[in-house]
Amino acid sequence: MPRTSISDLSSPNSINRDRGVNAPETWSDPTPSKTSGNPEGRGQTPIGPIARIGGWLFRRRTALPLPLVVAILATPSTQTRAVTATILSGIALTLAGELVRLWGVRHIGVISRTRSDRLGPLVDTGPFALVRNPLYLGNIALWAGFALTAGLPWIAPIIVIMLGAVYHAIVRWEETLLEERLGAAYRDYAARVPRWLPRNFRLQSSDFRLPFSWGDTLFSERGTLVAMAAGYLLLWLKARS
């Protein structure tokens, strides 16, 4: 989303809400009432069942990847000898997912991991100018990449479908909060920028101005980076066993 930041489970270990306003990665009170007030006097916005499920999942997002970890580590490779091309494609996909996350975090900043319910400014630059949820897309790529690296290409599409459904529900819940708090500004952003798939790849000069330093970016992403390193270490130990 634009980020002010609700953010994601966004890394394999956390996911910072990929939200710019962009919603905070962690939220102190993730359960909205059945209706949410509109600050512009447009009445009450009903919260549908998918959004309610998303709020429930959001509270548990840190634990959501654990079944994936168990499945990837416990499932024997379908290949007696992992194909080099599969391993390399998995590493490339994992790196691509993390690069998307780093690009997004350089625009949204450390607020993406805040544990309060405050929102930062609406961010619609960088990857947030292309899609509203780039951090979640980065997460999906990370996990699919791990499955490929483990020599389990058949698990990769299952991960994409499962995480896609989970993140879609979480995003619907986050969008309810963002529209409630940001009103017309967020509705305008949502009308211009698609939720998941880019309509085009046209970027402006502002999309390449990085408001946050690499130090801030890496600090915010430290959990994801540590999880990636631990994941590859476990995959290496699995391959040697």
Trace the largest sheet across and list its strands.
Answer: 1-2
Q: From the structure provided, what is the oligomeric state, counting identical versus distinct chains?
A: single chain
Biggest sheet architecture: 2 strands, antiparallel
Q: Helix fraction?
A: 40-55%
* Count of distinct strands: 2
Radius of gyration: 18 Å
Mean pLDDT metric:
79
Helical segment tally?
8
Order of helices and strands: EEHHHHHHHH
Q: Structural class, from helix and strand content?
A: mainly alpha
* Tally of domains: 1
Task: Catalogue the unreliable spans.
Answer: 7-20, 24-43
Distance between the termini: 42 Å
Shape estimate: globular
Strand percent estimate = under 5%
Please characterize this protein's 3D structure:
- It is a single chain.
- By secondary structure, the chain is an all-alpha fold.
- It has one domain (44-240).
- The chain has 8 helices and 2 strands; from the N terminus they run E-E-H-H-H-H-H-H-H-H.
- It has helices at residues 49-59, 66-74, 84-108, 134-149, 155-182, 184-192, 214-220, 222-240, and strands at residues 35-37, 44-46.
- Strands 1-2 form a two-stranded antiparallel ribbon.
- Strand 1 (35-37) and strand 2 form a beta hairpin.
- Helix 3 (84-108) packs antiparallel against helix 4 and helix 4 runs antiparallel to helix 5 (155-182).
- The longest helix is centred in the last third of the chain and has 28 residues, at 155-182.
- The termini are far apart.
